[in-house]
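User: Hello, can you help with two protein structures?

Assistant: Certainly.
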Amino acid sequence: MAPTPRRATGCFPAISALAVTIAFAAALGGCGSRLGDITGSVTTPNPDTSPRQRAADIAARYQAQPGNPEIAIEYARVLRASGQRAQAVAVLQQASMQAPRNQAVLAEYGRALAEAGHYQQALEVMSKAHTPDQPDWRLLNAQGAVLDQMGNHAEARRYYETALKIAPAEPTILSNLGLSYALSKELVRAEQTLRRAVAQTGADIRVRQNLALVLGLQGKFAEAEKIAASDLPPDEARANVAYLREMLKQRDPLKTISAPKKPKRV
């Protein structure tokens, strides 16, 4: 098993965001294997309120108004952020039953299902959250990431390509597409796609770390380590480089990002 970087903000774990950049990436939301934001934040948190207090506040609001879809979405996000994935799924399942045509609820429900490892159900729910005549590129990107987690790389890429028609050169889509090529061992195409992603305005550290991984897989260690150490304070940079080195020692490093994840507290 590959070691975990010293801090959660050291983003090599975000390569597993192929689920689900992910960012499952905005599709990669934050370091981790979460599907990115699809509907946006429901409320603006008070910066003077602690995360624990905000969580308590939204839990109280949910208990008072369990039928309010916006509150259910916000509460589920709090639960997911604290690792309570099964509870988040339960909250959104109830919300989807009460508001079966609410696309924001369905989108969030699909994300929560995917994060909990219920991939087939996630795809079914996501397909109801947007329509062919009004597709959402974020959902298409997320659906592609789920299919990659299921090993259906060719189908996943069709979703990414459709998403790119709506949001050309969007770095989170390109990042997931690049990782999809990496998972099928097409490393040259993966590198080309990830370099294109990195060159886009808005590309963040997670996209660059994905490029570093693919460069390392091809033996381009000097450039990979330079990228792995960029954007970070020295201690986190050292942790990322160490993680990269250990990961690349594995017999099949790509299993780190392709193996389905069981729900667990983080």
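That covers the first. Now for the second protein you mentioned:
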Amino acid sequence: MKKLIALLLPLTLALTACVSTDSMNGTTSTQSATQQLGGVALKIAINAKCTTELNNIPAWKTATKLMSSTQKQDIQSEICGCVSEKAPQSVTAVDLATAAIDPVARNTIISNAVTKTINACVAEAVR
């Protein structure tokens, strides 16, 4: 999966300049297909990081001891789905460009995005 992200992210950033223009009113579309593809790749990486982070939280380990594997998986999917939706909002275009070039920065950027949103999503899932 990391190889897929490593391949898609630079390609996405290189093609991000391709933006469609609405011929009726001359406005520029804010989301091209390439940007959407980059967003999907970012969400996949964030979801994978979320799963790892969640499984490393002592409170999560304690809370899930009495759950069935299905219950645990359902709640984990809900939490990491929330993180995957919200975390990309905290990633800037500069961060994306840096992530395309530097694998260490990519990991840091994804970790920071997950860290900023995981607690809020856990609180949401608990309600």
